[in-house]
Each structure stands twice: as structure tokens, then as C-alpha cells.
């Protein structure tokens, strides 16, 4: 059976990790930064050397195509992202892009021709760490967001996504969307502990959890810490405590699949000797079942309403983003399962807890995902790690799932 | 009886408030900023025009002296600060400095001579908003901190106080400390609601609450929000909830004088879809009784130790600053009380809830404070306001307390 070249793939992962590499061994290659630009440049250089035709669309998404025998047939696409969290790791996103390139390199090495073209895509700003919402490049491609909306997103310094895209030279001219795909695959580290605990090398991903993002804004009265008696205060931090308590309780009520994450609590003005006038709390709720996620949304609103009755602090819940649960395409799942069986790799079916570009692609073309384990389930962390044997096994599964869809010619 | 010129004082307060003035009517004149420099320059210009001799020490503290008949006698000093909170008001600090200048202007107007010199001081970085700890200029002057320690303090961007002092041109050459004072007064807005509620124009301040500042650092495990089951997480935000709850409880246990303030909760990395690896919580505990404040400190440590037993999140309590409760000088208090009586101003004795430069001065020379009300008790807030009649009444009390100590010559 055809096998990928693990050394080449691993070396490229390590080379890419040097761009934005951090002292702790992680990566800071935040979307549309100077590092992101350098990562993109290197990826395009490799794709061009591998004989691909490269195009960039107005969202900065990069498409590298290996021709098939019949140029009129829809491509089989493999995509993920090159951007990282501010304190991210070497594998999140980049593995999916470079594994796709390795599939093409492997076909080149063995002079394999396919009926359908094969296309590798790197999507812009998957992480959402600099510009919210996440997965905006694939979202615009698939028609979920407008280009204008994406361009108007701002980072913490007030810079817009549109300006920054132009600044790094990646506002391309390829038509937006309008690409026909027979199937799309995304391979990614699991970003959770399950595969490692179950001693599997590959996860056959059948769908993705739904995600709901909010900002809860609690507004009190900014006052000096010393002279105001406690009873005179309108303190948003104090008011937040019962909210936080009950929000975490949601994860227990809807266990084991519910996830509740509070990423930040930004007090303003945020100095030691001032009772904050405002506290902004991020909420990330997830569940694989749309009905339960809706119930969690409704519970959240009740919690806030109830707590509001017992305080003079004002509360406002901003609905930032909702990504419904996704069920992947049965044919794509079957292609991955068949590759796993052929290769005799220890694997299991599972649901993704994280959002991925594949979520938006699933609404555009038949799509599924492949996971490999990451050490200790750590991700969005500089210590994120994946084992070479899993990186290799996953990419071989990707190779054969892709070949079955792209129709290898003997 | 001699009275100050309220129009001149009020106009100067409003002119100074334009430097760093905010759209909401507040002031952002943070220590050692460009605005702080402009405020200092204007103050020195006014003092020089009023015939004062101006000196600056290596901490950037500004001393403006009106000569007395006998240059060998210790001065009577009136001091406060020109720096503000990032979202501060028009009166906090600056009132104490310009009221002092108005006392000198009034004596000039009426050609009054005093036996002792009178000195106005503006202390560097009272607020501690940019460089912690607060009151560092008066603290170095009085010998509580070393100059090197002060110079090494950094702001959030990593700039040191020493560098920034040089940058605005206020690292002076006057000998540090070594100034003899017969008495020192600080007049300030109350920054609390008591005087207004009691319908008094002046507070005769007999002492200051003790203050204890900490950073509580909770360290968990930074992980991706979606894929990590709740039971695998080590989440510092979740671990913080029972700590926050019990810390606020301290204020009730030691009511009514105890104060508990949480100024910020900084999650790191602070993005929506990552369980924070670390949460840094500021704690500000205050009480006028040193024994009770020590008990609160001990209770705080027990709370953290107990919560630590029930979580794998690591906790560390950093002791940032302690300012013991202060009892002011009986003779200074008597001088203020006598001025209040002479002027027949509605007044009451009280304890300050906030720290002030007078706390460090009290360890250096006989010292007391005068308060005036501020609207709704609001301070460290752009809406901070004081009424002209109270500004006038307080300054007249300051004038006569100063005159009784400086010994007016008929």
C-alpha cells in the first residue's frame, strides 16, 4: 500500500514551527501578523515546488491545486489553517495543511494520477484569537459571513481584519467561493484527552459540538476602594460570583457532553484600589446536541435574570456567535473508516469538541474530519505535542480516504 | 477673618483639569505621563509667579516655599499630588496642592508674614495606578522605600518609574528628605459618602485606615475550551469562585469598618476558547484597627489554604503592600478643629478610608488631614465632583490651621 514520507512531513512541521516559535517550544503565529505572512509565504513556496497551482481569494484563503485527469470534475479538498493562538502549539491547524501537502508530495513521488483534482487549502483566521469570530475565512468562503463583515472585525488595538490582510499582502483576487468539491477532509490533533486515554491513533470524526459564545457585561459603580462603605457599593465582581457558580453548574446539569469555559474576566478600569465600574466575562458553552445547547442558552438567561433581581448591578448578555452542532457526510466518514480498516490502524469514532473550518465546509460540500491524539490532551498551549507515529498514521488515513474519493488511476 | 479667594482657586482647579481632561468630564493624568509633566509645569509656573522658591528632589517631588521671617525655623507644609487615576476626577489630589498654593496667594494678597516658612508639595505617583505601590513619592521622601526600589517599579508595558521620571525631566537634585517640618497638612476630597450624608462641609481627619494589598495567583492548566471534558480540567476561574465568596464574607465578619475590594481578575491568555492557565486577582483589604486588619490577613490565608485542599489548582498569595493604620498628630488635629470652630463651619471628626501621602508624612513630622465632601461619594471616577462652597470652606480651614502653626505676625 502507498505510504506517506513521515520524515518530510515531520521536518516541515518543525520548520514551520520556527516561524513564531516561542522560548517554551510553542508557536505564536496569530492571524495576519508578520509571522502569519511568513508562514503563508513558506507554504506557497513548498506548494509551488510540488507543482501545484496556487490561488488566493479576497479573504486571504490559499488554494493549492494538483490537477486531475479531468479538469471539469470537482476536486477533493484537504484544508485547515496556519494561524495559531497567541500561546499555541506546533500542530493545531498547521498539521492539517502540511498533511494535505504531504499527500500531494506522496502522489508525486509515486507518479500516481487521479481522476479528480486534489486541492489543499489554508483558511484565514481560524483561531479567532485576534479577530472574533473564529473560522471566519472558511465562514466567508462557505457564505456564512459576508466579506464586508469579515473585513470590519477589529483586534484589541482597533486594527481591522481588512487593513491587516492588505498589509501582509494576502488580499487575493481568486473568485470568492465558487469552487466545486466532491469531498473535503480536515485532519487535526484532537485537542482533548480521549484518543490518548483510549490508546487509539486515529479518530473518525462523525460531527462537531455546537458552540455558543457570549460576553456578559456587568455594570456597577466605579468608586474608590477605601472610603466607600460596603453597603454603598455597586460592585460587579461581587455580583458575578453567583452567576459564575451557576454557569459552571450548567456543565454538571448537562454532563457529560456539556462544556462551559470562561476565558476572561476583564474589570474596568482594572486597578487595585478602585471598585470596578464594569466587568466583562466571556462565556463559551458547547454541546453536541442542538436541543440541549438551546436549553443551556435558555438556562443561562434565567440565571442572569434571577441574579439581576438580587443586585443593583446591571447585566447585559451579548450574543457573540453561535455555531450549531454538525453531522458530517456519511460517504466521507465511510471513506475514512475504510482507510483505517485497510491500514489496520487502532481507531474509534468520535465527536469533535472544538470548532473547525470543517464545520462551515460541511454546509458547502460533503465533509468529514480525522483526528490524531495529542499529548495529555493539551492544545491552545505552548506545550501542545503530537507523536510522530500518530502524525504518520493519520496522514496515511488521509491519503487513502483522499485517493478513494479522487479515484486513483492504475 | 482672613479668607481665601475662591474664584482664583476654582479657576485654577478647572484649568488644571483641562490637562488630561476626558470627554466625560474626568481627568487622565497618570503619573509620569506627558499630561503629568504638563500639570507639573503649570503648577511650577503658578508657584514662581506667587514668589515661591521651587525645588525638585530625585523622586520628582516638587517643593514650593514661601519664606518665613526666620529661615532657620522648620516650615509648615501643605502637600498632596497632581497625578490621577486613568479614569479619575478633577479634585482627587490636585485640590490639596492648589489649596496650598491658594493659602500662599491669600497671604501674599494681604501681605501677611509668618514666622515659619510655608511649603507646598506635590508628591510623585500617589495613585499607584501606573506604578505600584501607591504613595511612593512621599514614601521615599519619608524613608519608607529606597530610591532604587522606586526607580525599579514597572508599569504594564515594562517601563520603569526611573526611566519615565527622567523622560519627563523631573528627576531633580534637591537633597532627598532632610526637610524640617513643624507641621504638615493635607486637604483632600473624602472619596466616600459620609460627609455628604451627614451634611458637613469639613471632616477633621484623626487617622487613616490600614491597607493591605495582595495579588492572588491561581495556576491551572491552559487547555482548549471544547474537547477537554470538564473532569479533566484544572480551571483557575472555577477555583476562584469559593475564594471570592469567602473574601467578600470578610467584609461582613468585620463590619462595618472592614473594606474588601477586587480591582481586577486577569486571566491568561484571556481568550474565549481557552481555559485560562492562570488567573491573577487583586485584593485590597482595609480596616482602621491594626489588630483586626492582621486578623483579616490571617483569615485570608486560611481561606486560600482551605480552598487549595479541594482543588488541583495551585495558589500563591503575593504580599504587595501593607500600610498600617495611622493616628494623626493631636496638635495638628487641634489646629484644624480650632479653625473649624473659628470659622463656624459644619464639621465632624472622622477616619480616612483611603491611603494618602499624609500617611507617610505622619511618620516624618506632625501631620493631619482635612476632608471635604464629594458628590455621591464618587471618586476614582470621571464623574467625581466637589461643590464650590465646600472647596472654599475647606481651604479657609486649611488657611487658619496653617497660620496658627506658622505663627502669623501682626
Describe this structure in words.
The structure is a homodimer of 410-residue chains. In chain A, 35% of the residues lie in helices and 24% in strands. Chain A is α+β, with helices and mostly antiparallel strands and 410 residues long. In chain A, strands 1, 2, 3, 5, 6, 7, 15, 16 and 17 form a nine-stranded mixed sheet that branches. In chain A, strands 8, 10, 11, 13 and 14 form a five-stranded antiparallel sheet that branches. A two-stranded antiparallel ribbon of chain A has the order 4-18. In chain A, helix 1 packs antiparallel against helix 3 and helix 10 crosses helix 12 (388-406). The longest helix of chain A is centred in the C-terminal third of the chain and has 20 residues, at 290-309. Chains A and B meet through strand 9, helix 8, strand 10, strand 11 and strand 12 of A and strand 9, helix 8, strand 10, strand 11 and strand 12 of B.
Amino acid at each position: 500500500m502507498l505510504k506517506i514520507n513521515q520524515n518530510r512531513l515531520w521536518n516541515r512541521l518543525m520548520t514551520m514551527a520556527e516561524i513564531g516559535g516561542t522560548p517554551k517550544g510553542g508557536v505564536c503565529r496569530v492571524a495576519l501578523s508578520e509571522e502569519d505572512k511568513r508562514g503563508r509565504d513558506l507554504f506557497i513556496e513548498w506548494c509551488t515546488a510540488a507543482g501545484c497551482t496556487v490561488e488566493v481569494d479576497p479573504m486571504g484563503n490559499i488554494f493549492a491545486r494538483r490537477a486531475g485527469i479531468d479538469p471539469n470534475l470537482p476536486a477533493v479538498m484537504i484544508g485547515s489553517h496556519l494561524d495559531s493562538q497567541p500561546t499555541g502549539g506546533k500542530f493545531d491547524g498547521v498539521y492539517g495543511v502540511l498533511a494535505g501537502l504531504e499527500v500531494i508530495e506522496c502522489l508525486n513521488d509515486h507518479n500516481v494520477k487521479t481522476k479528480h483534482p486534489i486541492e489543499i487549502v489554508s483558511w484565514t483566521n481560524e483561531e479567532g484569537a485576534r479577530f472574533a469570530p473564529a473560522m471566519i475565512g472558511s465562514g466567508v468562503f462557505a457564505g456564512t459571513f459576508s466579506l464586508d463583515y469579515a473585513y470590519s472585525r477589529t483586534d484589541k488595538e482597533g486594527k481591522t481584519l481588512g487593513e491587516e490582510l492588505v498589509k501582509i499582502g494576502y488580499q487575493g483576487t481568486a473568485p470568492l467561493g465558487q469552487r466545486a468539491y466532491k469531498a473535503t477532509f480536515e485532519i487535526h490533533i484532537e485537542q482533548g484527552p480521549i484518543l490518548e486515554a483510549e490508546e487509539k491513533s486515529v479518530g473518525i470524526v462523525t460531527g462537531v459540538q455546537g458552540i455558543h459564545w457570549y460576553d456578559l457585561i456587568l455594570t456597577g459603580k466605579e468608586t474608590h476602594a477605601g472610603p466607600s462603605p460596603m453597603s454603598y457599593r455597586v460592585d460587579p465582581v461581587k455580583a458575578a460570583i453567583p452567576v459564575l457558580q451557576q454557569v459552571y453548574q450548567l456543565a454538571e446539569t448537562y454532563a457529560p457532553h456539556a462544556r462551559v469555559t470562561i476565558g476572561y474576566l476583564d474589570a474596568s478600569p482594572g486597578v487595585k484600589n478602585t471598585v470596578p465600574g464594569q466587568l466583562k466575562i466571556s462565556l463559551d458553552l458547547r454541546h453536541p446536541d442542538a436541543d440541549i445547547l438551546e436549553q443551556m442558552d435558555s438556562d443561562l438567561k434565567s440565571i442572569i435574570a434571577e441574579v439581576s433581581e438580587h443586585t443593583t448591578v446591571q447585566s447585559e448578555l451579548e450574543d457573540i456567535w453561535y455555531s450549531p452542532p454538525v453531522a458530517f457526510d456519511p460517504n466521507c466518514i465511510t471513506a475514512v473508516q475504510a482507510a483505517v480498516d485497510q491500514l489496520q490502524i487502532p481507531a474509534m469514532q468520535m465527536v469533535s469538541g472544538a470548532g473547525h473550518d470543517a464545520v462551515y465546509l460541511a454546509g458547502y460540500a460533503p465533509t468529514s474530519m480525522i483526528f490524531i491524539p495529542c499529548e495529555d490532551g493539551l492544545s491552545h498551549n505552548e506545550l501542545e505535542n503530537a507523536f510522530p507515529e500518530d502524525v504518520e498514521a493519520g496522514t496515511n488515513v488521509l491519503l487513502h480516504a483522499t485517493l478513494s474519493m479522487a479515484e486513483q488511476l492504475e
